[in-house]
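Incident review: delayed structure delivery

Summary: a single-chain prediction request sat in the queue longer than the usual turnaround. Root cause was a stuck worker, restarted by the on-call engineer. No data loss occurred. The affected request and its eventual output are reproduced below so the record is complete for anyone auditing the incident later.

Affected input:
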Amino acid sequence: MAEYTIDVIESAPFGQLAYVIWSPERSDAVVIDPGFDSETILALLKEDKKSLAAILNTHGHVDHIAGNAALKKAYPDAPLIIGRQEEKLLTDPESNLSTPFGVTVISPPPDQLVDDGDRLELAGFTFEVREIPGHSPGSVVYLCETFSPAFVFGGDVLFPGSVGRTDFPGGDHLTLMAGIFNKLLTLPDDTRIHPGHGGVTTIGAEKQSNAWIRDYRSRQKPADG
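Output delivered after worker restart:
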């Protein structure tokens, strides 16, 4: 099975993680959630001699879209892809939380909107879109099952030992937890989660140690009697 490389770029001030994924057999790469450090992302693409096949946004919050404009300027033909319910956040600095945090970030509009269950063929990778709202109105994750173990670019849905915060506009904790249970915890335990903040984790590890998951699971059990 072909190998692949995932480069991780962490950017201040939110400790957000952007990803560049590419195969040595290909001349193109995919960038997921370009944050404030777009210069490093562009330098990596140049160093690896890769063109940009697409920009994938898991959701439209400022720390995950701040680099969209710079990447589109450098690679205007690369499609910008985001979940359908997140479209407004790209161009509305209030909705994407940039104005509330003291900056104004406006992304280029999307080239493609995706829905739950859509499949994307990009740079030799096949991604399945799974919509898991709750942290934001229409956050999506990108699942790749072409490799073993499978892996997910999860944005701010599931973290090592935690889950996405739900106190932003459009957030809802129970909706988020239901999505995690129905669309992530059903994956094999060795599935790797590459989140928007923090380190890599696995589905199995979160089933065992994530207090938010344990709490939600306990609340779903029917009462005795």
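Verification: The two ends are 52 Å apart (CA to CA).
Action items: add queue-age alerting; document worker restart procedure.
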